[in-house]
Known about the structure:
Elements: E1 2-5, E2 8-11, E3 14-18, E4 21-25, E5 33-34, E6 40-41, E7 48-49, H1 61-70, H2 76-97, E8 103-104, H3 112-119, H4 136-144, E9 154-156, E10 163-165, E11 168-169, H5 181-191, E12 197-201, H6 203-208, E13 211-212, H7 226-243, E14 247-251, H8 261-278, E15 282-286, H9 294-301, E16 308-312, H10 319-325, E17 332-338, H11 348-362, E18 367-371, H12 390-394, H13 399-413, H14 419-434, H15 441-448, H16 461-472, H17 489-499, H18 505-526, H19 543-546, E19 550-553, E20 560-563, E21 566-568, E22 572-578, H20 585-592, E23 600-604, H21 606-611, E24 614-615, H22 621-641, E25 646-650, H23 665-680, E26 688-693, H24 702-707, E27 712-715, H25 726-729, E28 737-740, H26 753-764, H27 785-809
Parallel strand pairs: 7-18, 8-12, 11-13, 12-14, 14-15, 15-16, 16-17, 17-18, 22-24, 23-25, 25-26, 26-27, 27-28
Antiparallel strand pairs: 1-2, 3-4, 5-6, 9-10, 19-22, 20-21
Helix pairs in contact: 1-2, 5-7, 7-8, 8-9, 11-13, 15-22, 17-18, 22-23, 26-27
Amino acid sequence: MSQVTGGVVLLSLRLVSVGSLTLSSTPTATSHFLRPNSRTYSVRAMASHIVGYPRMGPKRELKFALEAFWDNKSSAEELQKVAANLRSSIWKQMADAGIKYIPSNTFSYYDQVLDTTAMLGAVPERYGWNGGEIGFDIYFSMARGNATVPAMEMTKWFDTNYHYIVPELGPEVKFSYASHKAVDEYKEAKSSGIDTVPVLVGPVSYLLLSKPAKGVEKSFPLLSLIDKILPVYKEVVSELKAAGASWIQFDEPKLVMDLRAHELQAFSHAYSELEASLSGLNVLVETYFADVTPEAYKTLTSLKGVTGFGFDLIRGTKTLDLIKSGFPSGKFLFAGVVDGRNIWANDLSCSVGVLHDLEGIVGKDKVVVSTSCSLLHTAVDLANEPKLDKDLKSWLAFAAQKVVEVNALAKALAGNRDEAFFSANALAHASRKSSPRVTNEAVKKAAAALKGSDHRRATNVSERLDAQQKKLNLPILPTTTIGSFPQTMDLRRVRREYKAKKISEDDYVKAIKEEISKVVKLQEELDIDVLVHGEPERNDMVEYFGEQLSGFAFSANGWVQSYGSRCVKPPIIYGDVSRPKAMTVFWSTTAQSMTKRPMKGMLTGPVTILNWSFVRNDQPRHETCYQIALAIKDEVEDLERSGITVIQIDEAALREGLPLRKSEHAFYLDWAVHSFRITNCGIKDTTQIHTHMCYSNFNDIILSIIDMDADVITIENSRSDEKLLSVFREGVKYGAGIGPGVYDIHSPRIPSTEEIADRIKKMLAVLESNILWVNPDCGLKTRKYSEVKPALNNMVTAAKLLRKEFASAK
């Protein structure tokens, strides 16, 4: 119910407590389902569907259970119990909210693509798997590596901040049904009285998301394996049918990419081969993250044995035109009108209008209200956010609230519209649109003034590097790290206590200074050339800056999974962005005062802040990015004035924001690269600008990376089998400093000196020694000092060995 008082809308939502989770809800209708006490509740069924749901838990329960297990502080049984409780709570929560098509098998201990690799028995030989059901030992070795072998490659999941484990395939892989997780979880839900829709990564997308294994020709056609994996899919489908499943969902997100004719043909072939096995089942093929092309739409809607098709109608608005031009008779349309990738409340009236239009095309009983993609990419529940103010909270919807929105839209479509709920929603949208906290005219004016300049530094990079070397006097193959050092429990406790006002500011500053001093001394002992202060004052590389910028808000529990147990808490950009005061100068100058070696000032770049935040959806993203760039520019210039001569502006997520369709690449790269250049266009030649980029495929955007005009770039390389280096082998000339990562920090494994030296030699085969830097892949925040010290020692020793070889050769 809602109350309207003096123009302010207070939306009162009933709290439905289910297990360990709490869901904000309104009285809802749901299909027949059995609760654990076996009583039957018969109410009206609504056509509603959720693509997937966050798996970490509202308070990151799975994260802590995983890390306890990895640290040998808990048993496999204890981890499985936490997981089972989370799954049960999620299913019951959706059932209580009235969702008809509830997904199962979207839960994962690490990643859904890795789950599929396990299902198919596609375990690389180095992990020593000898058949049988794949257990935690093999599963987590593939994800994280172990003492003797490295992990599988990890890369971005399309254009999100989620990461998946890349399958390694080749002609010799023997596929077999080796993980019964999908069937087990369906049965688990059914035993509690809830009939779910089991979700599988589709066979064609799985292959297209894979890579040739080490030793396999890079040109190996992965799709040639389709007939080898389909028998396993048929076994899974057969078991699901036998267990009583009536629907099955295949996620085929690769259909939104630019696909060639033979790739589209692979979809037709695969589902034709599966048709007999799928007989008797309702089959949903789900797409998300972008429009489908006309060719892909034609292929998809012609697939044999398929009952329904799911589309992202938030990021794929052009797909609406394709649906209007023709939709197969008698099929279901799963309409993704509730945004699965942002946290803004749905415009319910607008969505109902779209849904009614779709009903007129596909039929009244054939439209199913759905999320645009899995809710994995959004925060869990606003009920856990007591500190967000009422106005802002009324503008938002986390995963639990999106479940309610989906059901409210389904009810409205069925003629049972909740007028109070819709009225409150409309007033919240009006409140946001007119709020003075959203708009800052001075910021808008400054951003508008950026037009007409490309904001390049006055001299070219080679001249700048010469000027910087005269000032810094670095050795050949200079060593550095990426920024963060291990965040110990004591350090986290200090920050937590300061935030809770349990310790004074003086005590907090003293503790952080002591941590910085420890990190500086360690780096000097290791003989690292360009130092970092370790970022002990920072909780997160984006949140830390957002907390000091206007136009940002922060959740207490708005965690989103990035990979494995790693979660991030994206800031919420709700208004125009500016920098009220310096953000990092105090800590950077404090650290520089502790050493004579160069100390990097550490900043997060505007594109990464944008891409790792929940961004306002009421203006184009590039306009918000330019505002952030101006704020970072002020910080860069303050650092330089304070005597910091090396400044790193991380753009870890620049590649991640690249649109999925090639036709949209140029526009994005133009404003993204321009935003980076804005941050440092006015500084001296002697100030060295570094940037850093994380896990991504960079080869297709290397020219844009060069156009960023940074003096030094450090970039992920080790976990992807040095594929970054291939672009230089192919003749791309790079004149700035570059540090391809020499070891993978996302694994606890400690590389040997010889291994690192070998990696550096591979780099020297394609890069000049006078531009090559030696550094890890990424920041060290998630590692332990017992891992960091020997790994960095081996890294520095390897660089020194090669310097000696150079000296001897001369």
